[in-house]
Structures are given as C-alpha cells and as structure tokens.
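Re: beginner question about structure tokens

> Can someone show what the tokenized structure looks like for a real chain? I only ever see the sequence side.

Sure, here's an example I had lying around. Input first:
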Amino acid sequence: MAKVRTSKGSAGMARGFARLQHEFGTPPPDPATATIPPGWTFFQGNWWQWSGTQWAYAPAGPPQVRPAVSDVRPFVATEVYNKVGVLAGMALVSGALAALLRLPLGVAMVFILAALVIGLVGIFTPRHAAVLAPVYAVLEGAALGSLSRVLEAQTHGVVALSIIGTGAIFLGTLLAYRTGLVRVRRRFVTITVVAGWGLLAVMLGVMMGINVPGLGPDATRIVVFGILYLLVATMDLFVDFEMVARAERAGVTAEGEWYAAFLIMFAVVMVYLALLRILGRR
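And the corresponding structure tokens:
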C-alpha cells in the first residue's frame, strides 16, 4: 500500500483527540467477523479508507461495522457545549463572589496558580475531568473575579462588556463552524498551533521590554496581549469544535464530554482575558 496519508491533523488537536479516543473510545470492529464495506480495508493492524486517490488512515474504523452500544451513552457534541455552559456559569458565580468579598490580589494569585496546576493535571488525566473541570472553573473564576474588580475600578463597564463579548464570540464561532462558514482543515489546525507558539514567543519578548516597532509600551501590550491573543483564542475555539466533532464521529463514550468541555474552557478564558485587555486599554 503505497502513498499513505494520515488524517490526524496537526499535533495540538491530534493529542487532544487521541486522548479522548484512547480513554473513552469504544472498541473498533473486529475485522475477522465484520463485513467490510467498499472503500475500506484492514492492513497491518489499522483501518484505512480509500479517498479516491490514496489510502487515508482512519483509526475509528468504518461506521457501518461499528458494534452497537446499548448500555453506554455515546459522546454528543451538544452535551459538550451544555457542559461548557455549566462550567462558565460556575466561573461567573465564583468570580462574582470573589469580587463582592474583595479578595486581595495575593489571594487571587494563589487561585491562579492553583487553577494552572489543576489545568495541567486535567489535560493529562482525562478520566478525572468530571471532577477537575468544575474545580478549575471555580478557581479560575475566583482569580478572574478579583482581577476584574481591579480593572472595573479603573475602567467602568469593562467587565460587563468583556463577559458579553466572550459569550458572543463563543456563540459566533460555534455558529460559523456548525454552519460550515468556517471549515477546520489540516492547514487551519497547523496554522493555529504555529500561531500559538509564535504568540508565546512574542509575549515573552514584550515582558522583557521589547516593543512593537512604532508603538509604545502600552500600545504594544494591547496589540500582543489583547488583539493577537484574541485572534489565537478564537482560532483555538474552532480547533476545539473540530475535535468535538471528530470525537462524536469516532464513537467516543459520553464520559469524554467533560474532558472536551474542559479543553474548550481554556480557550473561553483566553477570550475573556483578551477582551479585558482590549476594552480596558491595559
């Protein structure tokens, strides 16, 4: 079998999808007993699909011969987005309480570090996402609530506008993806990953005192930590939506929904932080 092309996408989404499929995937069909439909073959322990010009690696196997599952609820994209809504609601409540209690910024930093640790642990332990995702949402919400209170005192109305903008961007990107207005292909995912690493490098440069040519320090921070950050966060949302769609098509079980929602929350937080920076001009 010559001229083989994989369809995993780039590294970022491939890892997220691979974890979903590995931890929550249903067993692939048994090629010894299954009726293999036209355009499919089982070669060297893997399923392959004929695209018309070449064989493409398809680890989930042909859907026509996937075994029926009666006692396990399947992964549903709509349920993932419902869980994102639950996590966002928890973050909002936690943030509101932190703002009302006027927690010191030192305490907020503790929450930020704790949320970072929980986030890193959650990425590599998908089975615990149902517990870790709500914990992350509460901690991150408290940290953002404390930060938002300070920025609100400096720029009135910035928090409300950032919350509204975050919801609008999330729903807008989801609508654009589900209607096919934006199609996430291999190149799109690759560009998103490269842009993310590039942004990280630029952010480090700005923190070291380097400014965008022609711009002062304040304008540079708005461009890098605001506009570019928002652009990458929005692209991340599209990539996450594609990961959810692939997981649904692959027959992943419902246990994976919390993990997918967990990953999406990272991008949602990025969007909110970027809008705070842009609207607050900080």
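Each token stands for a local structural state, so reading them left to right follows the chain. The chain has two domains: 4-65, 77-280.
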